[in-house]
Design brief:
single chain; 611 residues; alpha+beta; Sulfite Reductase Hemoprotein, domain 2; five-stranded antiparallel sheet; globular; binds siroheme; binds iron/sulfur cluster
């Protein structure tokens, strides 16, 4: 196998100097600046893998990732090694361990497997049914819709891992898109999100999804290791030619995850400004004339590392449709060369672009990558919409789409509401139905004839799944991350806590208040609490940060109102603040604007009130 740092790797000789230093005062360790020495352990692991094939060990020896997966499948190993763990992420696989009540990782080894679902979260009925079947066969009987329109399996046992990946990849192709876990995690482009109503919106049907698909295809890992490790046939014969070349990423892939999104002028549910690179069409006279181009967003921050912070993407100007793929590719190359590779916490593009200077980056994109960025103020962003209920679909037929609320994205049959069965029954019964995962962790069922609307509603009612007006305003935009017990980084619960907090607000007759509440189990911010109107972030055992005042269109970060709160006080504060949005908001401002424009002192006095 050829060494992968091949001549085909595009390597610009960049003379970009740090324009103004961001918070990171030490000189960065970058590919452009030097050798592997001094880079993080993960960089060494990626480099030694020769395109994700080999697991290097600390004594300089190596074995194949394939051999570790073989051992798992044969039940000869409980899990994979920690070096293999870093590579497996690039295949959408996370090594996890069940945590006990006190949070200690003492339980069985398990895996989380993430399926990529680019360009609007679209799935066919066959694909949905394949996922649904796999939930029982290989997971814990649930499907977890993600905040980036993906689907996760939790509690996958080692011996089922390869079988699950094969099941997903093997049979269910449609319209050229195959379910895959390749590149769903790891230091590559993650799921490329797009507004789920891109082409459905009756007033403005667009086609940004095609661009999102192009980006997803172009930035997918090109190594064939995935196929050799998971998909070689029963006799070990390869299903794809062996290839370790990564023309775009090179031997060490990107310094960190990379995220790209496309919003719609009527819907910013993807939270455009939280992406590394984002676009939204500019429409004049019903025609898309160009796209606003944003760069450098990201929400993660790390305890005890004050240099790390949530940052919204910056508006760079306008680009034309024909240059969008080039602009994404160029940004990925700049990040590959100039991103920090020693401290992974400081390695996201949001830090690189600010360290190098936005003007430098723009100049560089223009000159060396020939991207024609037109200087222009961006158009105002549309709101983050819940998209629940019925909407007529674009096109001539009398077809409809229906947004269905899935609490915290967990498609499961609970005792009270049987979400999984309701969706399966609908998908099996309505001809030509399509499915989309929304960035709010909900589902949209598409292409439903008017004559079938009543059947769909009845099916949901029979399974006790609340639909449209049956969903309280306070729940419609609520999101939480998986957190405990599966997420190894979680400090508190989130998915398992937020529904109860919301129920408590409903019991206090606050369910009708229109406010976006999001909760995460640690400061990584996976459910995007930092752009919510009310954001809750787990910070330690029985310790939470309460944030307020994000904008409904994602254009403003929330500010910290309480840096530390125990759970009891958190619940009390939630009640007080939601009451204030309803009762002390004389101009009926949207909840985020009300919270943003009210002083801390005032809000704290409301938070202390209970009713
Ligand atoms: Fe995330 C890591 C779950 C969207 C920022 N995220 C994780 C891991 C894999 C934990 C780990 O590294 O061990 C979580 C898996 C837990 C589990 O048991 O399932 C996890 N992230 C999720 C999901 C499932 C949350 C959800 O409720 O939907 C989302 C999967 C999206 C997908 O399909 O690709 C998810 N994560 C996000 C988002 C929101 C977004 O992308 O729109 C963010 C904030 C935006 C951003 O990237 O800055 C996000 N996740 C992080 C970070 C912080 C990154 C940083 O820059 O510091 C981590 C930790 C890390 O990478 O080191 C992380
Ligand atoms: Fe895990 Fe933290 Fe992400 Fe929640 S926000 S899924 S706790 S990494």
């Amino acid at each position: 196998m050829k060494d992968q740092l091949s001549s085909r790797t595009v390597r610009p000789s960049i003379g970009i100097m740090s324009a103004h230093k961001h918070a990171h005062s030490t000189e960065p360790t970058t590919l452009a600046g030097g050798a592997l020495q001094g880079m993080s352990n993960v960089e060494h692991i990626k480099h030694a893998s020769k395109g994700l094939f080999y697991v290097g060990t600390s004594d300089g020896a190596r074995h194949t990732l394939h051999s570790e997966i073989e051992a798992l499948s044969a039940r000869e190993a409980e899990t994979i090694t920690d070096h293999a763990k870093e590579l497996a992420k690039h295949f959408g696989i996370y090594k996890q361990r069940i945590r006990n009540e006190s949070g200690k990782k003492t339980g069985d080894f398990i895996f989380m497997v993430r399926v990529k679902n680019p360009a609007g979260g679209e799935l066919t009925a066959e694909q949905w049914l394949a996922l649904d079947e796999a939930a029982d066969r290989y997971g814990d009987g649930s499907l977890r819709l993600t905040a980036r329109q993906g689907i996760q399996f939790h509690y996958v046992r080692g011996e089922n891992l390869r079988a699950l990946v094969r099941h997903l990849n093997g049979k269910y192709r449609d319209r050229g898109y195959q379910l895959t876990t390749l590149g769903a995690c790891g230091d590559v482009n993650r799921n490329t999100v797009a507004s789920p109503i891109d082409d459905l919106d009756a007033e403005l049907p667009l086609d940004s999804r095609a661009l999102a698909h192009e980006v997803a295809r172009e930035l997918a890992p090109k190594t064939s290791a995935y196929y050799q490790v998971f998909l070689s046939d029963e006799n070990g014969a390869n299903v794809a030619p062996v290839n370790a070349e990564e023309p775009l990423y090179g031997a060490q892939y990107l310094p960190r995850k990379f995220k790209v999104g496309f919003a719609h002028p009527h819907d910013n549910s993807i939270d455009l400004l939280t992406n590394d690179v984002g676009f939204i069409p500019i429409v004049r006279g019903g025609r898309v004339i160009a796209y606003d181009f944003y760069s450098g967003g990201g929400l993660g921050m790390t305890h005890n590392q004050p240099d790390t912070e949530p940052l919204l993407a910056l508006a760079l100007g306008r680009v034309h449709r024909g240059q969008i793929l080039d602009a994404v590719r160029a940004t990925a190359i700049l990040q590959r060369e100039h991103g920090e590779r020693k401290n992974r916490r400081a390695a996201r593009w949001k830090y690189t672009i600010r360290r190098l200077g936005v003007d430098h980056i723009k100049a560089y994109l223009r000159k060396d990558f020939a991207i024609e960025i037109e200087d222009a103020a961006p158009s105002p962003l549309p709101p983050v919409r819940d998209l629940l209920g019925w909407y007529r679909e674009a096109g001539d037929g009398d077809r409809w789409y229906a947004g269905v609320m899935i609490p915290c994205g967990r498609v499961r049959d609970f005792e009270t509401s049987r979400y999984r069965s309701a969706v399966r029954r609908t998908v099996e019964s309505v001809q030509d139905i399509g499915i989309r995962v929304t960035p709010n962790q909900h589902l949209i069922l598409t292409h439903i004839p008017a004559s079938q609307r009543e059947f769909v509603e009845r099916t949901f009612a029979e399974h006790r799944v609340a639909f449209d007006s049956g969903v309280a305003p306070i729940r419609r935009l609520a999101m939480a991350c998986p957190a405990k017990p599966t997420c190894g980084l979680a400090m508190t619960h989130a998915e398992q806590a937020l529904p109860e907090y919301l129920a408590e607000l409903e019991r206090a007759e606050l369910g009708d208040v229109d406010v976006m509440v999001r909760m995460a189990g640690c400061p990584n911010g996976c459910s995007r609490p930092t752009t919510a109107e009310i954001g809750i972030v787990g910070y330690g055992k029985n310790d939470y940060v309460l944030m307020v005042g994000g904008a409904r269109n994602g254009s403003r970060l929330a500010r910290v109102l309480f840096p530390r709160l125990g759970e009891h006080h958190l619940r009390q504060a939630l009640k007080g603040l939601v009451t204030a949005i309803r009762d002390h908001n004389p101009h009926h401002l949207p909840a985020g604007d009300f919270l943003a424009s009210t002083s801390d002192e005032k809000l704290k006095s409301y938070a202390a009130m209970t009713h």
